[in-house]
């Protein structure tokens, strides 16, 4: 009988150990996968981050196809120079270029910069039409741009209002993805939920409350 119990106990212990081993393997695997993703995320989102103060940091998140379409609709009929503040992989810039804008993408992440520059080179686009600059847009005078596209994050939007109001000329339109300006009245908007984008005409901002019908020609 005692033998029998010992056998049962041994059996249970070995089962427990093997399950524990399995769990350890699963935990190790999960840890490794998580570390891998974190490493990849870090590689794409962190380079360039040290260049800006902590409260102005905005990670990379590409705009969706729908957002890009909506931004382009709100720029319909306009022309001239366009700046994308934080151009990421350049998708908004390329879409705007295909509609006739002369574009500058400001980006501090060297990997995304290298990607968008190579795409411009690959597509044979001249640097006078599209350029991607390794520059912090907070430290750049944006007064020469008549069109500005923005996909950043809520904590920086109020500060950006101040900067843009100081620098942009009256006939400039700013189109913003996903996170609207907290104080500016928008001229019009397109899409809903996460795909929503807003257009702001600088000349209308001083005349508060007035939300005029959506007109985009300069
Ligand atoms: C949310 S992503 C938007 C990317 C792109 N505009 C799009 O719509 O797909 C914001 C981008 O801004 C860049 N960025 C953040 N702060 C910046 C700064 N001060 N100067 C230049 N680029 C910046 C980030 O590296 C990131 O690629």
TrEMBL record:
The chain crosses the membrane at residues 26-50. The keyword Repeat does not apply. SUPFAM superfamilies: S-adenosyl-L-methionine-dependent methyltransferases (SSF53335). It comes from the Eukaryota. InterPro entries: FAM173A/B (IPR026170), SAM-dependent_MTases_sf (IPR029063). GO terms for molecular function: protein-lysine N-methyltransferase activity. One of its GO terms (cellular component) is mitochondrion. GO terms for biological process: methylation; regulation of mitochondrial ATP synthesis coupled proton transport. Keywords: Membrane, Methyltransferase, S-adenosyl-L-methionine, Transferase, Transmembrane, Transmembrane helix. PANTHER family: METHYLTRANSFERASE DOMAIN-CONTAINING PROTEIN, SI:DKEY-190G11.3. Belongs to the ANT/ATPSC lysine N-methyltransferase family. This is Uncharacterized protein. It comes from Denticeps clupeoides. The gene is LOC114786910.
